[in-house]
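sry for the spam today, last one i promise. C-alpha cells for design, 853 residues
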C-alpha cells in the first residue's frame, strides 16, 4: 500500500477520530472541522464575505487603515431543523400548530443564540479593540465598530478598494476568520464591504415614452382606478384595513405635507402614520424621498383604514439589518412592504444568510413581507448577467414583479402584459422591466409548486417573483412629491410613477384589507403569506384569484400559462381572492389525491426504474403530504425524493433491483399522509432476468475494499491512503476521499468488458459529510468511466457538499455509454475534490459493475 507522510498521517488521524465521534453524536462534521482547524490554524473561517460583484475586478489600492467601519455581526440561530418544521406546521391546516405563531420572546427562547454565545462574542470583540454598541433584543445582531486596521487584525482579513460602476468601494479579499472557540457562532460580519447600495428609486413617467395612463392630476392611476382594475371595491367597502398595521421599510425620510396632500386630494381620511427611527436615523427628506412617499401613498390608496409604521434606518449594512430586525422584534405589523433592494451579487452570501435569519423569524411570527423584485428585468445587477434582487429572492419574502396594466372606462380591467422596455437604459444595459429569475443562493422553497413552477428555466433554486402588479411607468401611479432633492418639482408635485416599488406596497395594502376581512369572518389571516398565496394558485377555487399574465417578457424570461419568472403566479383579483379564502379559509377539510406515472415498471436484475408520484388538492387548501413506500414481497428496494411535498407537488419514486433479486412480480405501495387524510397509489414491478437469459457477472475485484488497496489504483494530493477503516458501509473498510483542504483524491479499477456484453450496470454506496452550509457547491464527488489510458468516456454522476447525506446507493445503467467498448478495458473511477476553506469528505463502498454477457 502507498504510505503517506508521518505528519499527514497525524493530521488525518485527528480528523478521522473526530469524524468517528461525530458519527456517534449525529453531527457529521462540526467536531471534525473544528479538530482540523485546531490542528492547523486554530481559526474558524466565516465564509461568504467575498462579494461576487468584485470577483473579477482588480483592487485599486489597499483600504485606508484609519477608515472607520460599522459592523453588523449576525449570530447563528439554534435548532434550525426544528424551526423549519415549525414553520411547515404553521402553514399546514392539519397540524395542531397551524397558525400558532410565536411572539418575539418565544422565538428568542427557542431559536435565538444564547446569552452565553452573545457574551463570548462580545468579550472577544472587546479584546480585539472593537467597540460594541448594541445587541439586538432577539440576540441575533451585534453592532460594533473599529478602524479598517483593527478589523483586519481581529478577523485576519484584508480589505481593498475597487472601482465599481465608477464609484469607489471597499471589500475584503480574504475570508474573515475567528478563533476556534467561536466556531459556528457567527454567520456574518456585515460591513466589511460597501459594494452594494440599497436602491429602488421609482421611475417617473416623464423618462418614458407613450401616453399617460389614468386620470391623476399629473397622470397615473388614481386610488379608485387601481381598486376597480384589481377588483377591490367590494372588499374595501367592508374591509379597508381598519385595525391593521402595515410596516414600511425605508432608508430615507419624507415630507408629511406631501403625503397629507395626497390623502386630502383623494379623500382617504386623516393621516395614520408614525415613524420608528433606527440607529440614529432622522425623518429628513433626501434623494430617496420619492420612494418613501410612493410607498406610503400607495398603501393609503389601497388600505386607507390601516395604520402605517414607517421604519427609517441608515442606508448601510448595519442600518438595513437593524431596521428589518426592528420590524421583527416590534412585531407590531403583520404585513410589511419594502421597495429597497440590491442584486444578490452585490453582497456576500453571508449577508444573504444574515437577512434570512431575520426573515425566518418574521415567518415564524406570522408576518408577511412584500418586496419589490427590481426594475432591471432579468438583469438586476445593472449588467448583462442574469440576476435577481435581494431581499425578494429570500424564500421567506414575497417577491413582487411588474406588469403593464391596461384599463377601460373608470379603470375597468382590460388586459395586462409583462413590463419591459429595452430602450430605457436607466436601470440596466438591457433595459428596464419587472425583476425576476432564479436565485444563485437560495433553494426552491417547498411552497413554490403548481403549474409552471417546474419549467425549462427552473434549476432547483428559488424562483422570483411570486406575484405581480402594475409597474410600467407608462401605466403608472398618481403620486404627490415635492422634494427637489429626490428629483420632484415643488411647483408641479403631481407625477406619474412606475416600478415594482409601487407594486409591493399595493400588495401590502390589499393584504391588510384581506386580514381584516378574514378576521371578521372567523378565518385564519394570511400569516407569512407565501403558503396561502400559492395554496390559492394550486387549489381549485370557486373564484379565479389571479390574472394569469401570458403576454410579454421581462427582457429574458417570457410570460407563460401558469407560473413564470416574469410575473410569478399573476396579479390579484382581490374580491375573488377574499371570497376564496373565506370559502376555504385554509382551515376547512383538506383532502388530496395521489397517483403514479407510469403505474407499472419492468426492471431487469441489477438495474432500476422510476415513476413520478403526483399529488393534487381535491378540497380545502394545500398542506404538506408526507410520503412513504413499501415493497411486497420483499426483494426490490424503493425510495422517494423528496419524502414530503406540498399538495399539488410531485416526488420521484426510484425502484432498485439488485442483481440477486428473483424474477417475478412485485408491488410498490406509496402512501401519502396529510393530517388525517391518507391515500395510497401503487406501482406494479416486473423483475426480468438481466440480459434475457445471459450470465451476469460482478466484474470488480475487492469491490468492498476489505482486502486493502489491490487491485485498485489510487492517488491523493495530500499523500493519504484512500482505503481506510474510518467509516465503512459494510465490513471494516471503505474508500475515503478528501477530508482536508485543496484535496484531489481518486481511486479507480480497470475492468476488461467481454466482447459479448449486452448490459452494464454500475452501482455503489456513497456517504458525504461536510462543514459547508447552504445549497452552493464548493466540494465535489465525481464518478467517471474512463478508457484504459485514463481518458474520460463519461461522467456518470456529480455530487457535492450540498448533497450531504448518510449512506446512499446509486445505480446507473451504462450499457449505451459503453456500447463501443465491448472487448476493451475500461476504468471505474471515483474522484473527490475540495476548495481551500470548509472541508468535505466522501466515503465510497460496496461498488458493483454488473455485466451481462
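last one done:
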Amino acid at each position: 500500500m502507498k504510505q503517506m507522510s508521518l505528519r499527514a498521517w497525524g493530521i488525518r488521524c485527528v480528523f478521522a477520530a473526530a469524524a468517528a465521534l461525530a458519527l456517534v453524536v449525529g453531527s457529521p462534521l462540526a467536531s471534525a472541522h473544528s479538530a482540523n482547524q485546531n490542528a492547523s490554524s486554530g481559526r474558524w473561517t466565516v465564509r461568504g464575505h467575498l462579494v461576487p460583484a468584485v470577483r473579477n475586478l482588480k483592487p485599486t489600492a489597499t483600504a485606508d487603515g484609519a477608515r472607520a467601519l460599522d459592523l453588523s455581526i449576525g449570530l447563528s440561530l439554534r435548532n434550525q431543523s426544528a424551526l423549519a418544521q415549525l414553520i411547515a406546521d404553521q402553514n399546514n391546516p392539519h397540524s395542531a400548530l397551524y397558525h400558532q405563531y410565536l411572539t418575539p420572546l418565544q422565538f428568542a427562547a427557542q431559536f435565538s443564540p444564547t446569552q452565553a454565545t452573545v457574551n463570548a462574542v462580545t468579550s472577544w470583540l472587546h479584546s480585539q479593540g472593537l467597540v460594541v454598541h448594541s445587541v439586538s433584543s432577539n440576540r441575533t445582531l451585534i453592532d460594533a465598530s473599529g478602524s479598517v486596521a483593527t478589523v483586519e487584525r481581529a478577523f485576519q482579513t484584508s480589505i481593498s478598494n475597487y472601482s465599481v460602476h465608477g464609484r469607489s468601494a471597499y471589500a475584503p479579499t480574504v475570508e474573515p476568520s475567528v478563533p476556534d472557540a467561536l466556531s459556528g457562532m457567527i454567520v456574518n460580519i456585515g460591513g466589511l464591504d460597501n459594494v452594494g447600495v440599497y436602491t429602488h428609486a421609482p421611475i417617473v413617467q416623464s423618462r418614458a415614452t407613450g401616453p399617460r395612463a389614468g386620470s391623476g392630476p399629473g397622470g397615473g392611476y388614481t386610488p379608485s382606478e387601481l381598486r376597480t382594475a384589481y377588483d377591490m371595491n367590494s372588499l374595501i367597502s367592508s374591509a379597508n384595513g381598519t385595525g391593521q398595521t402595515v410596516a414600511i421599510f425605508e432608508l430615507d425620510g419624507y415630507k408629511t405635507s406631501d403625503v397629507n396632500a395626497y390623502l386630502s386630494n383623494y379623500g382617504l381620511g386623516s393621516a395614520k402614520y408614525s415613524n420608528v427611527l433606527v440607529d440614529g436615523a432622522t425623518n429628513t427628506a433626501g434623494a430617496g424621498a420619492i420612494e418613501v412617499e410612493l410607498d406610503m401613498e400607495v398603501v393609503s390608496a389601497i388600505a386607507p383604514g390601516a395604520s402605517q409604521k414607517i421604519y427609517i434606518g441608515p442606508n448601510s449594512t448595519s442600518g438595513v439589518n437593524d431596521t428589518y430586525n426592528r420590524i421583527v422584534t416590534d412585531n407590531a405589523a403583520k404585513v410589511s412592504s419594502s421597495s429597497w433592494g440590491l442584486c444578490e451579487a452585490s453582497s456576500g452570501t453571508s449577508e444573504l444568510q444574515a437577512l434570512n435569519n431575520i426573515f425566518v423569524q418574521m415567518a415564524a411570527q406570522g408576518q408577511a413581507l412584500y418586496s419589490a423584485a427590481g426594475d432591471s428585468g432579468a438583469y438586476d445587477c445593472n449588467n448583462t448577467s442574469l440576476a435577481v434582487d435581494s431581499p425578494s429572492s429570500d424564500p421567506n419574502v414575497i417577491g413582487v414583479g411588474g406588469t403593464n396594466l391596461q384599463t377601460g372606462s373608470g379603470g375597468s380591467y382590460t388586459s395586462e402584459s409583462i413590463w419591459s422596455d429595452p430602450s430605457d437604459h436607466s436601470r440596466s444595459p438591457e433595459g428596464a422591466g419587472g425583476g425576476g429569475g432564479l436565485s444563485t443562493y437560495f433553494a426552491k422553497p417547498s411552497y413554490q409548486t403548481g403549474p409552471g413552477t417546474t419549467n425549462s428555466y427552473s434549476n432547483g433554486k428559488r424562483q422570483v417573483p411570486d406575484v405581480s402588479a402594475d409597474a410600467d411607468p407608462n401605466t403608472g401611479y398618481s403620486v404627490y412629491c415635492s422634494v427637489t432633492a429626490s428629483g420632484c418639482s415643488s411647483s408641479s408635485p403631481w407625477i406619474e410613477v412606475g416600478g415594482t416599488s409601487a407594486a409591493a406596497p399595493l400588495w401590502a395594502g390589499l393584504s391588510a384589507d384581506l386580514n381584516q376581512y378574514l378576521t371578521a369572518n372567523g378565518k385564519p389571516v394570511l400569516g407569512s403569506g407565501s403558503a396561502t398565496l400559492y395554496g390559492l394558485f394550486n387549489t381549485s377555487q370557486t373564484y379565479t384569484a389571479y390574472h394569469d399574465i401570458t403576454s410579454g417578457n421581462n427582457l429574458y424570461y417570457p410570460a407563460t400559462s401558469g407560473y413564470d419568472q416574469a410575473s410569478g403566479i399573476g396579479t390579484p383579483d382581490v374580491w375573488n381572492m377574499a371570497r376564496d379564502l373565506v370559502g376555504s379559509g385554509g382551515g376547512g377539510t383538506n383532502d388530496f389525491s395521489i397517483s403514479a406515472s407510469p403505474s407499472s415498471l419492468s426492471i431487469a436484475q441489477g438495474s432500476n426504474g422510476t415513476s413520478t408520484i403526483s399529488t393534487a388538492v381535491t378540497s380545502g387548501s394545500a398542506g404538506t403530504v408526507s410520503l412513504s413506500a413499501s415493497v411486497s414481497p420483499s426483494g426490490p428496494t424503493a425510495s422517494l425524493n423528496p419524502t414530503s411535498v406540498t399538495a399539488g407537488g410531485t416526488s420521484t419514486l426510484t425502484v432498485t433491483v439488485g442483481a440477486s433479486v428473483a424474477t417475478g412480480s412485485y408491488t410498490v405501495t406509496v402512501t401519502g399522509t396529510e393530517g388525517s387524510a391518507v391515500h395510497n397509489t401503487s406501482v406494479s414491478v416486473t423483475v426480468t432476468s438481466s440480459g434475457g437469459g445471459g450470465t451476469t457477472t460482478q466484474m470488480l475485484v475487492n469491490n468492498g475494499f476489505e482486502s486493502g488497496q489491490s487491485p485498485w489504483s489510487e492517488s491523493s494530493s495530500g499523500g493519504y491512503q484512500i482505503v481506510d477503516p474510518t467509516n465503512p458501509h459494510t465490513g471494516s473498510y471503505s474508500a475515503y476521499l478528501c477530508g482536508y483542504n485543496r484535496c484531489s483524491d481518486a481511486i479507480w479499477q480497470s475492468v476488461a468488458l467481454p466482447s459479448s456484453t449486452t448490459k452494464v450496470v454500475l452501482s455503489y454506496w456513497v456517504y458525504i459529510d461536510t462543514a459547508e452550509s447552504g445549497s452552493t457547491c464548493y466540494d465535489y464527488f465525481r464518478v467517471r468511466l474512463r478508457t484504459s489510458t485514463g481518458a474520460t468516456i463519461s461522467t456518470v454522476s456529480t455530487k457535492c457538499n450540498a448533497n450531504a447525506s448518510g449512506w446512499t446507493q446509486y445505480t446507473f445503467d451504462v450499457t449505451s455509454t459503453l456500447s463501443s467498448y465491448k472487448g476493451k478495458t475500461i476504468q471505474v473511477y471515483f474522484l473527490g475534490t475540495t476548495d481551500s476553506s470548509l472541508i468535505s469528505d466522501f466515503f465510497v463502498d460496496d461498488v458493483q459493475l454488473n455485466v451481462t454477457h
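DSSP finds 15 helices and 48 strands in the chain. ok im logging off now
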